[in-house]
Amino acid sequence: MTTEQLKARTLEGFERMFNQGDLDYVDGTVAAGAVDHQEPEGTDFAAHLKDVIATLRTAFPDLHFDVHELVAEGDTVACRSTMTGTHQGPLRIGPMAGLPINGAHVEVPHMHFFHYDAEGRLTDLWHVWNTLALARQLGAPAPDLRIGAAA
């Protein structure tokens, strides 16, 4: 696939999976043996991705990703995005699990690197998101991250 086709596939993935909640789209998008480099070795990437989407869309039924920059070279697409939504359901992610539902509108920056195979299926994901910003927007106690601060 060309870099322009991979960029279009990436945008379609955000739209179909996260913005619309189309979990079936995951099956045709993620290659067998694909790796989410944030997760432990051996994690079933497609199943994990479906769980992440369902978890986020439960907590934020109006979940939406806006992609701001999209750059592609070879089989790699990189982008910066912002996740928005309104906290209307339980969120079971890390230190935010169990926080009371508060109706807060959130805006959370993300960065992604995607690798695709020749058929345009996702083989690798590297992803970072500002979970501290999300926690603060949801009212979680903020840790003291200053250098030299006591743990």
Describe the 3D structure.
With 151 residues, the chain is of the alpha+beta class. The protein has one domain (3-137): Nuclear Transport Factor 2, Chain: A (Roll). The protein is built from 4 helices and 5 strands. Strands 1-5-4-3-2 form a 5-stranded mixed β-sheet. Strand 2 and strand 3 form a beta hairpin. The termini are far apart.
Physical arrangement of strands within the biggest beta sheet: 1-5-4-3-2
- As an assembly, this protein is single chain
Distance between the termini: 48 Å
> Can you tell me the CATH class?
Alpha Beta
Known CATH architecture: Roll
Largest sheet: number of strands, sense, barrel closure: 5 strands, mixed
- Coarse shape: globular
What share of the residues lie within helices? 25-40%
Count the beta strands. 5
Domain module count: 1
Strand content: 25-35%
Concise structural overview:
With 151 residues, the protein is α+β, with helices and mostly antiparallel strands.
Helices and strands in order:
Layout: H1 3-19, H2 24-29, E1 30-36, H3 45-59, E2 64-73, E3 76-86, E4 105-116, E5 122-129, H4 131-137
Which key terms come to mind for this protein?
151 residues, alpha+beta, Nuclear Transport Factor 2, Chain: A, five-stranded mixed β-sheet, 4 helices, 5 strands, 30% helix, globular
